[in-house]
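stage 2 :: seqdesign
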């Protein structure tokens, strides 16, 4: 087997900044894959950079410690020494800030960065709120997260905010030069250099592209992609007024309001329930 060049390996994952955002398990899986495939001829793009194929990524699945689509609250994190931490109890009538404080741990910083960027760019408050909420559902589930997240928030936010959250997932795979959005290089590593979005994602993109709220969803993708600074210091405080104005908090508390999505909030509140 050929020796692994450390600099090439880090570059293949999107650079040091991208590696810093990966969990230890993800880094280990990436390293194992790189070592196993070092002797084979990898696919290269026109600029000469080497990336895994869809088939190579799928071949890693049996060796992963969990499914890639698993929500972050359902497994031990990088700082948990392999043990699930006890979660603090939520108030009897939990609010959105309560979930940010103790249930959205993994996606919290990124979502706050996205919302901060949206605020700095002069986005309207519905888009800022979409940026604040868009990836919080990753605590519960990762697969098709745009749809899951939109469903989780639909009873509590405007239709335009819901639209931006739902369709940001599909728009991520389609560049928009006018909006300043390029296809993320790191996706070659996440999805494979030969990845083609499935039909439902393509259909969602085509629908959103023709919609009057396309700009809101596209603005969210821009604020989503460029909000991964691990050293950023952000807080929910600047967004409390926007939450108060645009988020319809149920008086019974999230998860207790008998809405069609209350079960999602209850699962986040108590992910240790056996059934």
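stage 2 :: out
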């Amino acid at each position: 087997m050929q020796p692994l060049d450390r600099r090439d390996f880090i570059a293949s994952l999107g650079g040091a900044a991208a590696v810093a955002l990966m969990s230890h398990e993800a880094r280990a899986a990436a390293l194992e894959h790189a070592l196993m495939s070092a002797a084979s001829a990898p696919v290269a793009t026109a600029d000469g950079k080497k990336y895994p194929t869809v088939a190579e990524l799928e071949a890693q699945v049996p060796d992963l410690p969990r499914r890639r689509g698993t929500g972050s609250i359902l497994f031990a994190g990088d700082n948990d020494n392999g043990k699930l931490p006890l979660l603090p109890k939520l108030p009897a009538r939990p609010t959105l800030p309560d979930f940010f404080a103790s249930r959205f741990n993994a996606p919290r910083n990124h979502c706050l960065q996205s919302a901060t960027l949206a605020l700095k760019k002069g986005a309207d408050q519905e888009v800022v709120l979409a940026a604040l909420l868009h990836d919080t559902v990753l605590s519960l589930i990762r697969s098709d997260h745009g749809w899951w997240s939109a469903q989780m928030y639909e009873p509590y936010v405007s239709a335009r905010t819901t639209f931006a959250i739902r369709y940001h997932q599909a728009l991520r795979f389609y560049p928009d030069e006018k909006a300043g959005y390029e296809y993320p290089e790191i996706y070659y590593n996440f999805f494979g250099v030969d990845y083609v979005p499935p039909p439902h994602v393509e259909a969602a993109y085509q629908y959103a592209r023709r919609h009057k709220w396309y700009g809101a969803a596209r603005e969210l993708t821009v604020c989503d992609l460029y909000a991964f600074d691990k050293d950023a210091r952000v807080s929910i405080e600047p967004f409390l007024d926007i939450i108060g104005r645009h988020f319809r908090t149920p008086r019974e508390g999230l998860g207790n309001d008998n809405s069609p999505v209350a079960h999602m909030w209850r699962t986040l509140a108590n992910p240790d329930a056996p059934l």
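stage 3 :: structure notes
- Residues 105-120 form the longest helix (16 residues).
- DSSP finds 14 helices and two strands in the chain.
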